[in-house]
Specification:
alpha/beta; 175 residues
Length: 175
């Protein structure tokens, strides 16, 4: 019997087999959650739409999957970078039990500023993130009383995959 379903969204120019979302999938499975990792690489390649591909289509794809999953039971949305951004925005449109956001952009071009449903939220961000200033993420997390883990790393969080997985485990155990 599943405790719920996790949708794990990869970052821009990454893929569903990326290290971080794979680590999160392992945690979800171990804790009895079903999971999926949508592939957005076709949308990321659409540079004629924007420098980061077709973000609105990425969001629509996630919302469709999340709606279908939410009809079956609890849903937790998680993602890295652009995947974190669409997870947060999708939580405003779909019943979501929790959010796990790794290095979330607080701004995404012409898209709305980062926002999220008032659900248990955990954020992992890097002090040395070369793309997203830590101060912006700290302010965003503070305004929502989100759990925040700041690590000495860059945007890819490559030295903190295990720490991110532990933080995700904590979130899943608490929802």
């Amino acid at each position: 019997m599943s405790r719920g379903h996790c949708i794990l969204s990869h970052g821009f120019e990454s893929g569903p087999d990326a290290t971080k979302v794979t680590a999160l999938a392992d945690v979800a499975e171990r804790l009895g959650w079903t999971h999926e990792r949508p592939d957005y690489t076709d949308l990321d390649a659409m540079r004629e739409v924007s420098s980061v591909g077709d973000v609105p289509a990425r969001l629509r794809r996630l919302v469709e999957r999340a709606r279908a999953a939410a009809a079956q039971g609890p849903v937790v949305l998680a993602g890295s970078s652009l995947g974190a951004y669409i997870s947060a925005i999708a939580s405003l449109q779909v019943p979501t039990r929790g959010l796990f956001l790794m290095v979330p952009p607080t701004r995404m071009g012409p898209m709305p500023l980062l926002d999220a449903a008032p659900v248990p939220t955990s954020v992992v961000h890097a002090w040395q993130d070369e793309l997203i200033p830590a101060a912006e993420v700290i302010a965003w997390a503070r305004a929502r009383s989100a759990r925040l883990l700041l690590v000495e790393d860059g945007h890819r969080l490559e030295n903190h995959v295990e720490a991110s997985a532990r933080a995700f485990e904590d979130l899943l155990k608490g929802v």
